[in-house]
């Protein structure tokens, strides 16, 4: 057996909880009730940490994980969570109007902590963040984004360039561009350029970019879940936030913005979130229904 995966037989009380929670059944009990890692399944271990997290005796070792460094006492549910959770999600809205003040660093740290706690498809985490907490730097990026979108509007009007955009964006994104983004931007461009309004960054004082190495596996679903944790965390702190789909493609395509925001060349900017203190309090929530729910 690999020395890294071990059950300390002196500590183990044979409860078997680790055997049950291991998603790949790598742990097993033998006929004497002893728990051990199956050699033939060690390759399936993706270091999720569940066996170590569930063991009351701290009897389990998995390579790369340490009880001291990688775990914390898991709070128990106290029965109030659902009411609080419902309140949290019912009171959240996408916020696009902000007060003219920076977000304190400690609040952004709390948002980052929440994003970090979002579940990945499998560890290690691939999500990388750039937190732009300096409102001046956020603002500085706007003219570059506007210039890029002006260029895109021109490209979409040209049949040959349009095909290039289509190939690089892929079918789904291209349709969104053609049907929604470009008509909207054409309409808003004069006000965007004159500084009358900002439909890209919404005058947000802070911006979080979510990116990941293009070669890493399955990073996009992880990022969207992390983003959701991020805007719920922002809301729980009394801040307002919204995902902004216009920002990632602009950063993705612009060398200047990549340099400004320290995005490595090999990384894709997948999502973004604007954050700030909300200017308004929404008076009511908005009821929406899923396209369908099938109960079987
Ligand atoms: C993935 C994602 C991307 C979004 N991109 C934009 C955007 O580019 N511009 C914008 O104004 N709002 C954007 N939003 C905000 C949505 O328009 C907003 O969440 C939606 O209208 C529903 O409103 P609510 O969040 O208040 O329920 C985005 C939201 C999500 C989840």
Describe the fold and architecture.
- Helices cover 43% and strands 12% of the residues.
- The protein is of the alpha+beta class and 296 residues long.
- The model has no long low-confidence stretch (mean pLDDT 95).
- The chain is built from 11 helices and 8 strands.
- A 4-stranded antiparallel beta sheet has the order 5-6-8-7, with helices on both faces. The chain has a two-stranded antiparallel ribbon with strand order 1-4.
- It folds into 2 domains: 6-70, Alpha-Beta Plaits (2-Layer Sandwich), CATH 3.30.70; 91-276, NADH Oxidase, CATH 3.40.109.
- It binds flavin mononucleotide.
- Flavin mononucleotide is lined by residues 93-94, 96, 242-246, 286.
Question: Could you state the CATH homologous superfamily of the largest domain?
Answer: NADH Oxidase
Largest sheet: 4 strands, antiparallel
Give the helix/strand class: alpha+beta
Kindly state the number of beta strands: 8
Helix content: 40-55%
Bound ions, cofactors and other small molecules, one mention each? flavin mononucleotide
């Amino acid at each position: 057996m690999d020395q890294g995966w071990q059950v300390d037989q002196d500590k183990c009380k044979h409860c078997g909880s680790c055997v049950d929670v291991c998603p790949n059944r790598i742990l097993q009990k033998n006929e004497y009730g002893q728990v051990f890692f199956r050699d033939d399944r060690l390759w399936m271990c993706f270091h999720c940490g569940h066996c170590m997290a569930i063991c009351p005796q701290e009897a389990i070792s998995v390579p790369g994980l340490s009880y001291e460094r990688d775990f914390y006492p898991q709070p128990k549910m106290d029965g109030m969570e659902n009411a609080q959770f419902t309140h949290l999600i019912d009171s959240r809205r996408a916020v696009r109007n902000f007060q003219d003040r920076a977000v304190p660093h400690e609040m952004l740290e709390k948002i980052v902590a929440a994003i970090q706690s979002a579940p990945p498809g499998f560890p290690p985490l691939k999500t990388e963040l750039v937190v732009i907490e300096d409102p001046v730097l956020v603002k500085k990026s706007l003219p570059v984004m506007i210039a890029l979108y002006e260029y895109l509007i021109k490209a979409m009007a040209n049949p040959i360039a349009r095909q290039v955009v289509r190939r690089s964006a892929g079918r789904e994104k291209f349709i969104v561009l053609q049907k929604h983004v470009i008509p909207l931007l054409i309409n808003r461009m004069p006000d965007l350029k004159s500084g009358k309004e900002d439909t890209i960054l919404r005058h947000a004082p802070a911006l979080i970019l979510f990116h990941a190495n293009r070669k890493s596996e399955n990073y996009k679903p992880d990022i969207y879940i992390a983003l959701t944790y991020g805007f719920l965390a922002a809301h729980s702190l009394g801040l307002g936030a919204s995902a902004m789909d216009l920002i990632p493609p602009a950063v993705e395509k612009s060398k200047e913005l990549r340099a400004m925001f320290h995005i490595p060349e090999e990384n894709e900017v997948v999502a973004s979130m604007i954050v700030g203190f909300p200017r308004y309090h929404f008076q009511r929530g908005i009821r929406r229904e899923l396209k369908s729910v099938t109960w079987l």
